[in-house]
Amino acid sequence: MKSNTIVSESMQKFITLITFLFIFTISSAQTKFGNPEVDPIQIQKTYTDWSAYQSKKIMLSRDFTALDAASKEISKEVFLDKLANENYIPIRLKSEANIYVYKLFKIQPKTDTSIKATINQISFDAYKNYKMEGTAFPQFSFKDLNGNLVTNESMKGKIIVIKCWYIHCTPCIREFPQVNKLVEEYKDRNDIVFMSLAEDSAEQLKTFLARKPLSYSVIPDMKIYMNESLQLNSFPTHFIINKKGMIAKVLPNFESLEVALAKESKL
């Protein structure tokens, strides 16, 4: 009888230990990447709060570790697909300044529908851009405003930074000082070329650029090419083409471009 009691107590201790280890493992997996940097529920209270947070903290074009709602690591492709088509917001988890971990959190029932609509649209664009990365940049033969001809062949062995824009795109123009500074930063790199594709005519561009200079070479009348060959529906859009002519990155703003180019330039 005493022997059975000892066995029973040992079994209970064993089960308790296994249960503890199981709970500890789950807890460790959930906290491995840190806690959310903002309250996922509070940030959904108003569209203004969410929009301000998203614009400063969530850059879906960058390289990041993606987690689902259960803190399980998933691919960037799956993460973007869920954001574009399901009922989630992305929140960054607390980490070092140069480490990015985004996790999915459920959108609350009473959340402003504008938040979901904005997330779906931004994520759809990010997903489409992500799928272009690693593919060959479409064939081109462009002549810029100075009469210089640029083609896939002439650009071989160079990193090409392309800005897609048009005159009446306010965000496109707002980042001119920043991209001009970027050109200056890489002026000694003969293997990096900056060019821009604009929807507008040569005449319109010459008049406009006399007032708002752009340090990129500018190629006019690119609306059809950007719509059909690149299938763009948001501006500005930036491309980084690697030395093999492949699309390394597709980016929606200067902030993302600056980070991605610093990385590509060191490869």
Low-confidence stretches: 18-30
Q: Based on CA inertia axes, which overall geometry fits?
A: globular
How many helices? The count is 9
Largest sheet: 5 strands, mixed
- In whole angstroms, the N-to-C terminal distance is 72 Å
How confident overall, as mean pLDDT?
Answer: 90
Radius of gyration: 25 Å
Spatially, the strands of the biggest sheet line up as: 9-8-7-10-11
Helix percentage: 40-55%
The ordered string of helix (H) and strand (E) elements is: HHEEHEEHEEEHHEHEHEEH
The tally of beta strands, per DSSP, is 11
Structural class: alpha/beta
Sheet-strand content, in percent, reads: 15-25%
In brief:
This protein is α/β, with parallel strands linked by helices and 267 residues long. Helices cover 43% and strands 18% of the residues. The relative contact order is 0.12.
Written overview of the protein:
- This protein is α/β, with parallel strands linked by helices.
- 43% of the residues lie in helices and 18% in strands.
- It has nine helices and eleven strands.
- The chain has helices at residues 2-31, 47-57, 76-85, 113-132, 170-174, 176-185, 202-211, 223-229, 254-264, and strands spanning 65-67, 73-74, 88-92, 101-106, 141-143, 149-151, 159-165, 192-198, 217-219, 237-241, 247-251.
- A five-stranded mixed sheet has the order 9-8-7-10-11. Strands 2-1-4-3 form a four-stranded mixed sheet.
- α7 (202-211) links the parallel β8 (192-198) and β9.
- Mean pLDDT is 90; it is low at 18-30.
